[in-house]
Amino acid sequence: MTVPILDLRRSFSEIKPEVFAALERIFDAQSFILGSEVRNFEAHCEKYLELPENSAIGCASGTDALLLALMSLDVKPGDEVITTPFTFFATSGTIARLGAVPVFADIEPKTYNINLEQALSKITSRTKVFMPVHLFGQLCPIEEVIDEFHDKGIKIIEDSAQAFGAVRNVDGKILRAGTIGDVGCYSFFPTKNLGGCGDGGMVVTKDAKRAERLRRLRVHGSGKTYYHDEIGINSRLDAIQAAILDIKLQHLETWNAERRKIADFYKLLIKTNNLQEFITIPAELDGNYHIYHQYVVRVKAKRDELMTWLEEQGFSARVYYPLSLHLQPCFEYLGYKAGDFPESEKLSHEALALPIFPGLTEDEQAKLIESVAKFFRRK
Ligand SMILES: *Cc1c(COP(=O)(O)O)cnc(C)c1O
């Protein structure tokens, strides 16, 4: 048996006829950039996320969503943006791309999300934005600190690239990833829970003026064609991606629920195989509806050996992320060193993602965990 880290073919087979019908419609129309397909998908996202009309702006990628969000908040060279060192590169890459300074705060060891108390302690007179990430599909409880940031005039951009559809229940109030702060950013990269057949992304904001500005920024800053109010970028969602994503959006709740079932079964398997002394399963914070973009466990020792062993037995596992961002060569100029963020660094040595995707079978999970047990029990 071989189990891949991700097999998109399994969920795609459910929607193939619908997707091919949509492709035929678009090729017949020969209209590929923005247009009604994109507006239609944006409107469905607004409804799904319980956002006002025209608050969702499709763009070319999750990275561009972050870049556009920062631009829409006038982030300029020298401004500081507080964020996590344990995330995909784009979170800090976009900050640095604008000449702003990523200021890191360490993570919570249980949820892997940014430590909010430490984030607050990093505020200076230059802090412009707080950019938390809802990592691996679990909401960071940012509602606890929003007022403190806002009181100091600091805006909040949620990197929700891994969390489209993740929610958090706070005293009966449902908070949706990407809609809690000032601007929310999503990625539709094919591997994400809502993934297209190519690159894609989206920015959302409840502020109508900012939404209008974002809509301009994605087309070179032009409101009226060929008249430019400010300098934007070229970052549009294309009609083909929008149409495919619109079909997938209708299946997202089912697929996310399936991921949760897979996570539950891993939990059971790790317990019944008595692996708790070797492996710590990911924690779900009270009130959270974790959508398990990744199922990342901690392996206390011999993580890399275990990964090699699994690969040899036909089971894929991956490391997200092997090097904390404050130690990346490209960020040497920021002046951080090893030991600055011990929790993030520790996790980069222990994290291991196991396969999780709609269509993964219990039998495949059981065989994989049996193989993990064999690794730790062999002498
Ligand atoms: C995927 C991802 C991005 C970037 O999205 P792209 O669509 O690949 O550009 C940004 N932040 C996080 C946390 C991501 O996982």
Q: Which descriptors apply to this entry?
A:
alpha/beta; 13 strands; 7-stranded mixed sheet; 379 residues; globular; binds pyridoxal-5'-phosphate; 3-stranded antiparallel sheet; single chain
Structural notes for this entry:
With 379 residues, the chain is an alpha/beta fold. The chain contains twelve helices and 13 strands. The strands form three sheets. The protein has a seven-stranded mixed sheet with strand order 1-9-8-5-4-2-3, sandwiched between helices. Strand 6 (167-170) and strand 7 (173-176) form a beta hairpin. The structure holds pyridoxal-5'-phosphate (PLP). Pyridoxal-5'-phosphate (PLP) binds next to helix 3 and helix 4.
Describe the secondary-structure layout:
Blueprint: H1 8-29, H2 35-48, E1 56-59, H3 62-72, E2 80-83, H4 90-97, E3 101-104, H5 116-121, E4 127-131, H6 146-151, E5 155-159, E6 167-170, E7 173-176, E8 183-187, E9 201-204, H7 208-217, H8 239-249, H9 252-272, E10 279-280, E11 288-289, E12 295-299, H10 303-312, H11 342-350, E13 351-354, H12 362-377
Parallel strand pairs: 2-3, 2-4, 4-5, 5-8
Antiparallel strand pairs: 1-9, 6-7, 6-11, 8-9, 10-12, 12-13
Helix pairs in contact: 1-8, 2-8, 3-4, 3-7, 9-12
This protein binds pyridoxal-5'-phosphate.
Pyridoxal-5'-phosphate (PLP) binds at residues 61-63, 87-88, 90-91, 133, 159, 161-162, 187, 189, 199, 201.
